[in-house]
Amino acid sequence: MTVRTRAGGWARLTLAVVAVVALDQATKQIAIASVDRGESVNVFLGLDITNTRNSGVAFGQLQDGGAIIGVLIAVALIALLAYFATHSTVRWLWLPAGLLLGGAIGNLLDRVREGSVIDFIDPVAWPAFNVADMAIVAGVLLLLFVVETQTGDG
């Protein structure tokens, strides 16, 4: 039987956060170095790399929300960290928490540096997004799964 410690949970969370932020920031730099702002390059049918910015949240909602977006993000991150702090020994909780925190930090770095989030993955009929956005979506889904499996019958 493996003993799960709080320190181990925090260490894995930290590694996940660092990995997501590094991958997110690296891919954004590659995209902006490869494609001029506002331009698109077709990768294959149905997928472009587009150098664009999003000053809102998901799908461009709350454009130019500024302080409102900052407060919402801060509240969500504080709640996630508080939940993790009290449940850090839960199996696999570090992964969705790390994805969520890493994605939020990656996009927050863009907001601080650029005033908006750098998006570049641009599929047909879907708004452009980035690696941080993918981490956030995966983190939410995995968080629901982990919490359900820990509190359910199994």
Q: What coarse outline follows from CA principal-axis ratios?
A: elongated
How many helical elements? 4
Order of helices and strands: HEEHHEH
Helix content: 55-70%
Distance N to C terminus: 17 Å
In what range is the share of β-strand residues?
5-15%
The profile of the biggest β sheet is: 3 strands, antiparallel
Pairing-aware structural class of the strands and helices?
Answer: alpha+beta
Mean pLDDT: 89
DSSP summary, beta strand count = 3
Instruction: State the strand order across the main sheet.
Output: 1-2-3
Overall radius of gyration: 17 Å
Low-confidence stretches: none
Model description:
- Helix 1 packs across helix 3 (94-114), helix 2 (67-87) packs antiparallel against helix 3 (94-114) and helix 3 runs antiparallel to helix 4 (131-151).
- The mean pLDDT is 89.
- The longest helix has 29 residues, at 6-34.
- The two termini are 17 Å apart.
- 60% of the residues lie in helices and 13% in strands.
- The protein is an alpha+beta fold.
- The radius of gyration is 17 Å and the shape is elongated.
- It is built from four helices and three strands; from the N terminus they run H-E-E-H-H-E-H.
Compose a concise summary of this entry.
The chain is α+β, with helices and mostly antiparallel strands. The chain is 60% helix and 13% strand.
Structure characteristics:
3-stranded antiparallel β-sheet; 13% strand
SSE topology:
Blueprint: H1 6-34, E1 40-44, E2 47-54, H2 67-87, H3 94-114, E3 117-123, H4 131-151
Helix pairs in contact: 1-3, 2-3, 3-4
